[in-house]
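Re: the 296-residue chain
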Amino acid sequence: MTDDDRSVVSVDFGGTWLRAALVSPDGACRDVARRPTHAQRPPGQIVDDLCALIREVRGSATRLGGVALGMPTVEDEHGGLVASDNVPTLTGFPLRTTVGAAVGLPVCAFNDANCYAVGEWWQGAGRGTRNLCGITLGTGVGLGLIIEGRCHGGSHGFAGEIWNSPFDGGTVEQHACGAALERLYARRTGRAVRGHDIEARARAGEAEACQTLVAFGQSVGRVAAFLANVIDPDVIVFGGSVSQTFDLFEPGLRETFLSGAMAGARTRLTLGLLGERAALLGAARLFNTVTTGKRE
């Protein structure tokens, strides 16, 4: 990759990690740099770390197209961030313009789940499809939609924001994120255990951990079935940190999906292929789409 190819500094700004990489227009992605978000901090401290990461990734490149910023929320009509539990101190904060002024580059901001969906559709598990749902399971729950080969944000940018939708007396996010998995295990065992330890226990054969992951998959499967009935996608692709346990929650996922989805037999369910690079590639693709005026 050279600094003459109008590469983009692509950023995945999550509630737990800040990740960034230099991405070329053809999808070549350099090594991913990262640092913890510490999302409870004041906005200025988060922005300082974010800008330092952008400068680190940029290096000596001088002919960059700009910065593609994927984030766990969307902008309001004034350019401030809409409230998100994943970045609670940034509600109303003009992140895109603040970062652009600090690093001296054009910045385009996109919802991170949309970035994930575009990345997997462009270079990953959804390559060659027309309609895709990308579900991210991590600190929160995200959904990105590709409809007839185009990223679908809706009339106001809120398409796919299912995290706050009512579900089993709570919300989708309360039943289908990393903390939800930990709560399920605690209710079964009376023990507070982190998600990666639940995974380790399940892989070691602990019955309670295995049962917890199946139950978690059943909740996710109901969400996926609803999406299949509304959108009828070619594929539903799963990503995010919790998706590392996909093989463990897949039995529960498929059980409730097939019992609830009209198109269950035709919509594929699959783990994403790109890992943490998916959102970075998708953000870069969206940046180039917006700045060149081309439609997908």
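The domain at 8-114+280-292 is CATH 3.30.420.40 (Nucleotidyltransferase; domain 5).
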